[in-house]
């Protein structure tokens, strides 16, 4: 039997011909990294290759690693295998990884979304024979509203809370979601404060994006300055002693899971905003069709349901298990320093 160009094993997605792993979840010699979320960029590899905008992100999180940055579409060859990185639109620096050998082309998406968020390089369709796709939101129930509508809702919520003399505490993941929200917050409404983990990552990304001004919350920040302002914080801050100084406050969360009835109540959130950095159902289907791929490999999320649907549509589709969890609920068990995990909870 012919060995597949890419194979899933206990360390990650492996290209034996090049002796390279894609987003490995255990330490390896050579790793090509799709993006900076901790379930895809793990600590402990000897050599990292990633898009150059992702280099400062993973160095911020992982320390002084041996990493090489590549440009979009730049081809690099390892033992006859040609690799290149193409925009995934998921977060800043997120890439799809194209792999070609002897005329056969595979594409590994990492995480991706098709809506242009205005801060990430927009998703690019890459033609291939085999397409490895995530399925975080691979159910017909997931259908995203345009980003502009969601951000209007966020800003109107903040303005209403300000009128009532309350602090708006908005939760979003430290890398990606927090910056997407920040970019479109209306600073004319009030002051924008940030949790330290959000501020640290945002400072790394200011070299790529013109964000509104923010102020880091410290032990010196006075409680009476919060009413009417908005605070961007990671979900781990909810229910912590840190948040108490914002009283009286109202909480909001931006996540694709807010599309599920009851998600806001279970998370004890006052207001839910449906905003995801992943494709919705239609986005997944349109992306797959556009690649022209005959074979589809589905990973994490609703992969079994989604692959079964694809087979009904005539695709050669199957599932593979990974340790990718998706940034909508990501945790870190990579062996990285503890502060990295804390930023993602």
From TrEMBL:
Start and end residues of each stretch annotated as Disordered: 318-345
Leader sequence segment: none
Superkingdom: Bacteria
Molecular function terms from GO: RNA endonuclease activity
SUPFAM superfamilies to which the protein is assigned, alphabetical: Metallo-hydrolase/oxidoreductase
Protein name as it appears in the record: mRNA 3'-end processing factor
